[in-house]
Amino acid sequence: MGINLQLLGLQAIPRLAKKFDVELDGFSGFLDLYGTPPEGFRKALDKCGRILKFLFKEFHISWWDVYLNSDIGMERMALARDMGLEKDDVVLDVGCGRGYFTTAAAGYSRRVIGLDPMNGMNRHGWWKEFKETISELKLTDKIQGWKADAQSIPLKDHSVNKTVAVHCIRNFRNKQAIQNALREMNRVLMKEGEIIIVENIPIARNKSQEAHLAIFRCKCNYSPSDIYYFSQEELLKIFRNAGLKEVRVEVVDYNLSAAPPIFYLDPSRLKKEQREKARRDYIAAVDMIKKYGETSPPALIIKAVKHPK
């Protein structure tokens, strides 16, 4: 069982337990992981694995049950629906990561190619988890995984109907790299095909979304691996600079913990003058999550159609 699947399990277990009227003695829920040191995180995952094995054996639940009862799974399925994927589509999922959206896209399309260089920080073993997930969900006949850079996609021109990037472009090196990737995504599209980008924006509509933004801002300020959310204006400017026109924008707000920024602050890694402020920011963010919960802010679905030249 990969960490990918266990993380989904941590979100899904409370819903599954309620459905089957199972008492969870001392279960550490997803929100309990905020502020938890790495060793506590590992223990929570181990306990999650034991509970899932019990549910598999006693109630014959499947990994699809886990995926569809997790916030991540529910949000990705809703996105695949609202993005307008169709049953005959061949989809290129750029920046697929562990395959959260690739899985959802397979339920709405004919075939999906998950593409990712898997060379970022803390990504060791992600291809293994991607393959485990696809195998557990019995999707090996519909999904392929390719290790490649989005700035040099190993596909011929006019190869796919849809190119998508879901919650990933902030992981690119800079805005120029994003624009290069968008041009490549446009190149491999068939005529009248669509580029579709999904990104959260830094707007909170409730306290749980405010808590999300607080912990994510803390993570971006004190960890080198993340870029804070782009505004709608910044995202549209990136599209225009990549030469994409007739862009359409839809705002969706599922209010789920769908891109959870779990972050444990280790002040010893920071400069001495940063440590006290970092502690205060982190404690305040974790306190907000404990009080209000944590859900992802609204997201933009941005589409551009490839027209004949």
Detailed description of the structure:
This protein is α/β, with parallel strands linked by helices and about 300 residues long. Helix content is about 45%, strand content about 15%. The chain has ten helices and seven strands. The protein has helices at about 5-20, 40-60, 65-70, 70-80, 100-105, 125-135, 175-185, 205-220, 230-240, 270-290; strands at about 90-95, 110-115, 145, 160-165, 190-200, 250, 300-305. It has a seven-stranded mixed β-sheet with strand order 3-2-1-4-5-7-6, with helices on both faces. Helix 4 packs across helix 5 and helix 8 (about 205-220) runs antiparallel to helix 10 (about 270-290). The radius of gyration is 20 Å and the shape is globular. The chain starts with a helix and ends with a strand. The mean pLDDT is about 90.
